[in-house]
Task: inverse folding
């Protein structure tokens, strides 16, 4: 029991940090700036990151308490997700501390909502049970709905929050219907039990309904075409650091949860042979998402909208990693490229949005390319970091984005269960289209004279945020050995899925006198 | 006997749900909300037939009791007149909605008629006499589902913070 609590420490620390800074805000002097709350949050998240690192170094742990084990798994897969989410949350917080006062919306609850959102994401990626995953998803979503509309005085922010809320609630409805059908078909919500059941029984019509519902629900969260309509408006109206959290954190969590649910619970051969196989659906969704996202990104004039469409097209590339992955022995995820890509993509987009936050002073709704003109002459370091992020998103070496694409494509070409060559070709063509609009940013920053004076936020923590992100992106791209090793470790999955299944069988007993907890 | 009660409840649920959005009831938001209460009561009856007593009670208490009352308050506070709603006219999105719903219903009904795909769940429900009682559900909440149960408290906290942030006039 005590060991379990130590193993759950990343989650517990994040939870306590969220509650702590909420209280700190209550007792803080309302006239003083709330910057220090952000720093406290960063320190707390760093502690959680250290705990995650310790667990990751031990190679994942098994929870001994059966009621914890049925709900959460702390395998390297989940711990990799924890680390990524925590880093994204830390960078978001750092980018926010001086951004909020400039937007006149500096309320301490912001930081606790960011922390709780990350807690929800962490629960999602660690969930071994669909109910737990659902609660995690809701914690994350509710916090992000509010953060999207945090600049309450701006009509764009209200629009963003409303759109995101209604479509998110709609997607949640689909997810819940899907979960209800899973429970109806198998009598359990535990992923391992569901997988065991579907290994023995033909999913049939239930399988089709479940797959459709789940794909719609996750499609909204990862913003895959045709469920992407909300993305540009929401990213544009949200505070820029929160747009970074959505692009980097929410998408990472949703993709990892999607990978775990589909590869663990619906990874069986019977699901491949359904009239609607989820792998086929994701195959076509990936093509659609990459192409539509890229083409619409080309025509954007607003940088935030461009980044939103670029994040849509990246969802397509990540879907290739999902299609190429294959569950091994019920649970393990093959294809380490997926993890590397998520890392590269999350850090690049968080960093890019952190740089965009600099331009946020008064009138953020309209950050056009023209506003970026001559940016490099006034903010050399920020412009340099932006170049790195754009190169990484475009997939130009020596950045992590290039290597991520390379690894995902090799995974796809090595996949034996499906011929993914056409998919990879579409992806390569799309990457080339992408280079156009990413380079456009660089051209405007370096080669155009500033059209007019515009105010920027000068903030050291913001600089640290995008500086760190750029450093990691370059280091992971140039010296990738360690990161590739970590990704491979994350891809090996649960150290012993069997014991999780035996623990999960506890859940089948609805008897009131279940075993007493020790 | 059970069949008769089921059909009464099922037809009642569908009819009152349709009445929520379809004129003449649906034209007036208050009438719509009230037919929603009726639908919830019929649904509660269906839950009783499924031996889910606790869910049935919660359905009446929370949905019919609390949530619809909240609906009514909001509707009355907004004070929507029928001229504000405008004249209902067919739009392309409504057409798409009708087609989608019709398609899904036909597929589902077809499957049920064809091979009873949905009629019998592959896993038999526990026939235990304690199934669905408050005691059983409570036990499960504090054992197998303790983690999601505790996390729900965080979810509620986040929702409360969010409501205050979004709605409070001065922070």
Result:
């Amino acid at each position: 029991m005590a060991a379990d609590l130590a193993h759950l420490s990343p989650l517990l620390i994040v939870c306590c940090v969220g509650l702590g800074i909420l209280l700190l805000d209550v007792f803080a002097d309302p006239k003083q700036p709330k910057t220090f709350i952000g720093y406290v949050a960063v320190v707390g998240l760093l502690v959680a990151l250290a705990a995650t690192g310790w667990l990751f170094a031990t190679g994942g742990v098994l929870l001994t308490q059966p009621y914890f084990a049925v709900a959460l798994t702390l395998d390297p897969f989940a711990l990799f997700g924890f680390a990524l989410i925590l880093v994204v949350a830390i960078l978001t917080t750092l980018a926010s501390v001086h951004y909020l006062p400039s937007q006149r919306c500096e309320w301490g609850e912001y930081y606790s909502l960011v922390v709780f959102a990350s807690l929800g994401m962490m629960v999602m990626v660690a969930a071994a049970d669909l109910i737990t995953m659902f609660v995690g998803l809701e914690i994350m979503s509710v916090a992000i709905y509010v953060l999207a509309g945090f600049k309450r005085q701006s009509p764009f922010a209200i629009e963003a929050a409303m759109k995101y809320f209604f479509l998110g609630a709609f997607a949640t409805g689909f997810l819940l219907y899907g979960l209800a059908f899973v429970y109806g078909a198998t009598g359990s919500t535990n992923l391992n039990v569901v997988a065991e059941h579907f290994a023995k029984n033909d999913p049939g019509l239930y399988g089709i309904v479940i797959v459709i519902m789940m794909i719609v629900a996750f499609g909204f969260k990862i913003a895959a075409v045709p469920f992407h309509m909300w993305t540009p408006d929401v990213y544009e109206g949200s505070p820029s650091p929160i747009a970074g959290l959505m692009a980097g954190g929410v998408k990472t969590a949703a993709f990892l949860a999607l990978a775990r649910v589909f590869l663990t619970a619906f990874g069986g051969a019977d699901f491949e042979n359904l009239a609607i196989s989820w792998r086929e659906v994701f195959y076509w969704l990936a093509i659609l998402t990459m192409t539509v996202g890229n083409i619409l990104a080309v025509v954007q004039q607003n940088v935030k909208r461009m980044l939103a469409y670029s994040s849509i097209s990246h969802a397509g590339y990540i879907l290739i990693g999902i299609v190429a992955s294959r569950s091994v022995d019920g649970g393990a995820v093959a294809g380490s490229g997926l993890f590397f890509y998520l890392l590269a993509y999350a850090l690049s987009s968080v960093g890019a949005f952190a740089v965009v936050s600099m331009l946020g002073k008064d009138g953020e709704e309209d950050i056009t390319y023209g506003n970026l003109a001559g940016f490099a002459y006034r903010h050399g370091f920020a412009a340099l970091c932006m170049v790195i992020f754009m190169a990484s998103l475009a997939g130009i070496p020596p950045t992590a984005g290039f290597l991520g694409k390379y690894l995902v494509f090799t995974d796809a070409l090595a996949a034996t269960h499906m011929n993914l060559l056409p998919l990879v070709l579409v992806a390569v063509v799309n990457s080339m289209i992408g280079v156009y609009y990413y380079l456009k940013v660089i051209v405007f920053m370096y080669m155009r004279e500033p059209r007019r004076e515009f105010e920027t936020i000068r903030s050291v923590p913001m600089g640290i945020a995008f500086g760190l992100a750029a450093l990691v992106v370059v280091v992971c791209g140039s010296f990738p050995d360690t990161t590739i090793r970590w990704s491979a470790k994350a891809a090996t999955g649960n150290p012993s899925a069997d014991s999780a299944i035996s623990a999960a069988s506890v859940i089948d007993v609805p008897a009131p006198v279940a075993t007493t907890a020790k | 006997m059970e069949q008769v009660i089921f059909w009464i409840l099922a037809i009642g649920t569908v009819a009152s749900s349709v009445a929520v959005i379809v004129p003449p009831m649906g034209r007036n938001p208050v009438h719509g909300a009230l037919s929603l209460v009726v639908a919830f009561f019929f649904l509660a009856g269906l839950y009783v037939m499924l031996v889910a007593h606790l869910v049935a009670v919660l359905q009446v208490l929370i949905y019919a009791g609390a949530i619809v009352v909240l609906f009514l308050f909001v509707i009355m506070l907004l004070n929507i007149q029928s001229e504000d709603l405008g004249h209902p006219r067919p739009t392309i999105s409504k057409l798409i909605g009708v087609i989608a719903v019709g398609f899904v219903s036909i597929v589902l009904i077809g499957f049920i008629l064809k091979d009873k795909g949905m009629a019998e769940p592959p896993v038999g429900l526990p026939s235990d006499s304690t199934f669905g009682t408050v005691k059983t559900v409570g036990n499960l909440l504090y054992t197998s589902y303790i983690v999601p149960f505790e996390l729900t408290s965080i979810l509620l906290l986040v929702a409360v913070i969010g409501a205050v942030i979004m709605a409070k006039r001065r922070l």
